[in-house]
Amino acid sequence: MSVRDELLIYPVDQRFLNEVEKQFDLTRMVGSGTFGEVYEAYDRVNHRKVAIKRLFPYQTLDAHKKEAGFISSLNGKPNIVQLQYSPPLAPDGIILVEEQQALLFEFFEHDNPSDYVKDLTIKEISHYMKNLFVALRSVHSLGIIHRDVKLNNFLYDRKNKKYLLVDFGLAEKKIPKGTMGTRGYRAPEVVMGSQHQTTAVDVWSAGVILLNLLCRKTHFQWFRHDNDNLATMEIYG
C-alpha cells in the first residue's frame, strides 16, 4: 500500500493532500498516535528530508497552535524537536489547508526501541537518561508539562549518540487535569485524575523508561487490569 493510499483511509481532505504533494514527496509513515500520524517526506523546494505530523481532523482547529507554540518557545534547546520552516507551503512550520492541520519538523534518523532496549550497556543507559533529563529540564523551566514521556517519544540515534524529545501534543502549561497520557507511563496522580498534577508526572514517566531499559523490555504486562490503579499497585506495590 502506498503512503497516499494510507492517508486516504482516513477522512483526509483531497485538497490538503494535493497541496502537500506540490512541495513534498511522502515517503513512509514513521509513527502514529491518538491525535495524529507522522510521515517522512522529501521537500523538493528546499532539498531536505522532513517529518510531517498530520493532526487528525477531529482535533480543534487551533490544536496545532498550542503544540507549535510550546516547541517554538523551546527553540535551540538541546535534545528537543524543532519546527522546520519550509516556504512556500510552510514558512512557519505549519501546513493549513482549510480544516486540515499539519506540523513540519526536522527529520531525525533514529533506532527502534525494540532493537536497542535489548542490549544497552549501563553506560549507554546512563547517557540516555542524562540526555532525557537535559531535555526535561528545559521544558520544565518554562512551566511546561510534556505529559507523554515514553520510549517512543524520546528518539535515540544509537550510532551517533543523539537524542530528541518529540510530540508535545498533550503538553500543558497550566496545571492539567484528567488522565491523559500513555498507559503504563502515567504517574499515580494522573491515573487518579488529580487536580494537582505538576512537572513531577514527567519525572515519574522518565523513571518508567529507566525501568524499561534496566529490565530490557519495551513494556510490561501491566495491562491485565481494566483499572489502572490496580495495575500500578501490582507493579510498584
Automatic annotation (TrEMBL):
ATP binds at K53. Residues 24-237 form the Protein kinase domain. One of its GO terms (molecular function) is ATP binding. One of its GO terms (biological process) is mitotic DNA damage checkpoint signaling. It is an enzyme of class 2 (transferase). Transmembrane segments: none annotated. Its EC number is 2.7.11.1. The keyword Ligase does not apply. The keyword Cell membrane does not apply. Signal peptide: none annotated. Keywords: ATP-binding, Kinase, Nucleotide-binding, Serine/threonine-protein kinase, Transferase. GO terms for cellular component: nucleus. Belongs to the protein kinase superfamily. This is non-specific serine/threonine protein kinase. It comes from Guillardia theta (strain CCMP2712).
